[in-house]
């Protein structure tokens, strides 16, 4: 009976086990076979496809593992698949990375795989302690990868800042979790939710929530506000985005954000849903701050990656808007926007990766003038990315913003919706400025760009998604709705 239970628990974690096994085996092979180590990313990419397959085959099930510390339902499966697809896209884009070495260091795909294992566990964790372990497993490889570029001191600076502030966020999370454990005597979400209900029902007279309990919740939320680059915890984002290798910036901007957003959804809508009157105010404040800082901060940026960093902060503001709704429509908007954001992020950073194959390009926005003449197809990709991020129809970014604004207006949060629209209008300036420089500024500069086939494939897929989403929008919305219903039914 015990062995059957163990195998059932392991079956829930098959995607994580596949990626972890591939990472360990690849680490051993890369250490012994130096000449073939640059191709290590290929078996890891194959393992990610296998992980996606096994995750999808369990879609629609509702299971628990390790005494309900791990959940397996439509919500966790969808978020895992999104992360794995982002991971696969990053691996296929790896051949374009321009590092000091002539070959791709095998440590890069191995560290990425280990980070993804942490992300996958975070998504399905139903326990504060397991979330912490997964959070560190996700973060530690990213700290190393951020400093991987040996040619630029900015990379080392970015890694140090990322590590120091990441350690601070981990401390905040552990402090909040320890306070929560002191109240509940458990770190399991189910027990935390039951504790709050029992406290509120222990007396006929309504009693106030213990203030220390709320402080613990604020500390836990603050740790993940850092991870998702929400204001006022955004200070690391522009420096890390600019200093890290662009390939790592792209992965950090997409996959890690989805994992952290998933944890926020788990925490707020499972053990703390009855405290919505308290945490909703916090989420709304952070959403407004992120919208303002993201829209205004990007205007003065001259570096393209720093500009996209502030754009990320603005997008997180929209996601927090949806998160603050507290209803099914808000969860749908959060999942839907996070999915679209991954695609937009890849489409924005892949052209930068391609431009970096030309030694004359140093990341400044003004340096892309003339791209429309020398490489018109790549310029069209940048055009689509900027328009989609700006939320201009008929691109996918517009529908993501519309879904969030609709859910906010539906709940009567009109002021928040107006702020979201105003922030979008302001951010349009720096997105459209990129298009103006690319197409209309005079220059004699020509680019020498070499794009591998696998990268062209990823660019084509994400570009077609951004353009063609308007044709078939229903499948993704249906998946988001099913995942949201699965989350609130727990």
Automatic annotation (TrEMBL):
Name of one Pfam family that matches: Proton_antipo_M
Assembly description: NDH-1 is composed of 14 different subunits. Subunits NuoA, H, J, K, L, M, N constitute the membrane sector of the complex.
Record-linked InterPro entries: NADH-Q_OxRdtase_suN/2 (IPR010096), ND/Mrp_TM (IPR001750)
Transmembrane segments: 12-33, 40-60, 72-92, 104-123, 129-148, 160-185, 205-226, 247-270, 282-300, 307-325, 331-355, 376-400, 412-432, 453-472
Keyword ATP-binding: no
Enzyme Commission identifier(s): 7.1.1.-
GO cellular component, one term: plasma membrane
Stored HAMAP family: NDH1_NuoN_1
Superkingdom to which the source organism belongs: Bacteria
Protein name per UniProt: NADH-quinone oxidoreductase subunit N
Function per UniProt: NDH-1 shuttles electrons from NADH, via FMN and iron-sulfur (Fe-S) centers, to quinones in the respiratory chain. The immediate electron acceptor for the enzyme in this species is believed to be ubiquinone. Couples the redox reaction to proton translocation (for every two electrons transferred, four hydrogen ions are translocated across the cytoplasmic membrane), and thus conserves the redox energy in a proton gradient.
Coiled coil (residue ranges): none
Family per record: Belongs to the complex I subunit 2 family.
């Amino acid at each position: 009976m015990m062995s059957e239970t163990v195998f059932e628990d392991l079956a829930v974690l098959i995607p994580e086990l596949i990626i972890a096994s591939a990472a360990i085996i690849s680490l051993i092979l890369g250490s012994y076979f130096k000449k073939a180590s640059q191709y290590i990313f290929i078996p890891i990419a194959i393992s990610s496809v296998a992980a996606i397959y096994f995750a999808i085959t369990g879609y629609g099930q509702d299971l628990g593992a390790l005494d309900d510390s791990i959940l397996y339902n439509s919500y966790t499966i969808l978020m895992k698949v999104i992360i794995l697809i982002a991971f696969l896209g990053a691996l296929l884009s790896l051949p374009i990375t321009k590092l000091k070495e002539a070959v791709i260091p095998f440590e890069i795909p191995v560290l990425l795989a280990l980070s993804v294992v942490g992300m996958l566990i975070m998504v399905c964790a139903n326990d504060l302690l397991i979330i912490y372990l997964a959070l560190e497993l996700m973060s530690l490889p990213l700290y190393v990868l951020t400093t991987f570029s040996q040619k630029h001191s900015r990379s080392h600076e970015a890694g140090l800042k990322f590590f120091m502030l990441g350690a601070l966020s981990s401390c905040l999370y552990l402090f909040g979790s320890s306070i929560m454990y002191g109240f509940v005597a458990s770190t399991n979400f189910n027990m935390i939710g039951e504790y709050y209900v029992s406290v509120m029902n222990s007396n006929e007279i309504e009693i106030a929530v213990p203030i220390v309990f709320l402080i613990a919740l604020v500390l836990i939320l603050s740790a993940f506000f850092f991870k998702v680059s929400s204001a006022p915890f955004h200070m690391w984002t522009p420096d890390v985005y600019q200093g890290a290798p662009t390939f790592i910036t792209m992965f950090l901007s997409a996959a890690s954000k989805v994992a952290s957003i998933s944890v926020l959804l788990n925490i707020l809508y499972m053990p703390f849903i009855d405290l919505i009157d308290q945490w909703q105010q916090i989420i709304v404040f952070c959403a407004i701050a992120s919208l303002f800082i993201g829209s205004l901060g990007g205007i003065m940026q001259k570096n393209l990656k720093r500009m996209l960093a502030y754009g990320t902060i603005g997008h997180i503001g929209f996601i927090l808007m949806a998160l603050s709704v507290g209803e099914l429509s808000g969860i749908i908007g959060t999942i839907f926007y996070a999915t679209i954001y991954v695609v937009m992020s890849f489409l924005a950073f892949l052209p930068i990766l391609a431009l970096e194959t030309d030694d004359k390009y140093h990341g400044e926005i003004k340096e892309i003038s003339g791209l429309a003449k020398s490489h018109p197809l790549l310029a069209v990709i940048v055009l689509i990315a900027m328009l989609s991020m700006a939320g201009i129809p008929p691109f996918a970014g517009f529908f993501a913003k519309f879904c969030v604004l609709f859910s906010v207006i539906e709940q009567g949060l009109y002021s928040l919706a107006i702020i979201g629209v105003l922030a979008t209008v302001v951010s349009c300036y720096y997105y459209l400025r990129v298009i103006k420089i690319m197409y209309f500024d005079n220059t004699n500069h020509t680019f020498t760009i070499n794009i591998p086939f696998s990268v062209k494939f990823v660019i084509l897929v994400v570009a077609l998604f951004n353009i063609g989403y308007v044709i078939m929008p229903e499948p993704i919305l249906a998946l988001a709705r099913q995942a949201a219903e699965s989350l609130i039914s727990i």
